[in-house]
Amino acid sequence: DADVTQTPRNRITKTGKRIMLECSQTKGHDRMYWYRQDPGLGLRLIYYSFDVKDINKGEISDGYSVSRQAQAKFSLSLESAIPNQTALYFCATSDRTLRDEQYFGPGTRLTVT
Amino acid sequence: DAKTTQPNSMESNEEEPVHLPCNHSTISGTDYIHWYRQLPSQGPEYVIHGLTSNVNNRMASLAIAEDRKSSTLILHRATLRDAAVYYCILGRGDDKIIFGKGTRLHILP
Q1: What is the pLDDT of residue B29?
Q2: CA A6 to CA B56: how far, in whole Å?
Q3: Chain B residue with Cα closest to A98
Q4: Three-class DSSP category at A84
């Protein structure tokens, strides 16, 4: 079984709709991250969380919100989706002592029409 | 943030060694050098990291220049499964690792 899982794997939604992407991990890590990847570009950090009570903005947090429901679960929400949020979204986790050694999920391909 | 510079793409023949370069001339003394790779249709995968000394693991070796301004990821015997985008990243342990565009490695059979 995968250590980091993401649901859904693919989603098509319309402009203005609210959508939630979910991430679960079984690695027991306390740190979790959300990234987006656009074609031809590297990954950009949206939000990250040190634990259930600590949420931090990344470099491109506008238009997104997150919820850390438990140590193992970290959700990303698009309150009102827009077409330029069409991208591949990755969740990742890391241990507090090896913060830069991150483990990634398989990704969610989101299309906003 | 300290940046890295990598070639956009490289080619190598199957079963030969591959040397992937990375320049990081503005690296600070506390920055670790990390390498990730992203196989087609998958999330990034951690490969290796180091600070000052060369490092080896089951996947690859990392050679770090004495002045730490450059490093090289070495795949000792490339296979078709090693075709991926390889990212060289500097990390300061503050959770904000920055992914650039990486090097797309093509393996020729």
Answers
A1: 87
A2: 31
A3: B93
A4: helix
Highest mean pLDDT (candidates A70-74, A98-102, B24-28)? A70-74
B67's tokens: 């002045």
d(CA B72, CA A90): 27
Q: What pairing do the DSSP bridges indicate for beta strands B84-91 and B32-38?
A: antiparallel
The verdict on a CB contact (< 8 Å) between A102 and B49 is no
Confidence of residue B75 (pLDDT cuts 50, 70, 90): very high
Quote the CA–CA distance of A68 and A23 in Å, as a whole number. Answer: 10
Between positions 8 and 37 of A, the ones with CB within 8 A of B are 31, 33, 35
A101, B45: Cβ pair inside 8 Å? Answer: no
Look-up: residue for tokens 């490339």?
B78
| Residue pointed to by tokens 């990212």 | B87
Check pLDDT > 90 for residue B100: no
Question: Which residues of chain A does B46 touch, with a Cβ-Cβ cutoff of 8 Å?
Answer: 101-103
Residues 68-107 in B contacting A (C-alpha not used; CB under 8 Å): 87, 89, 91-102
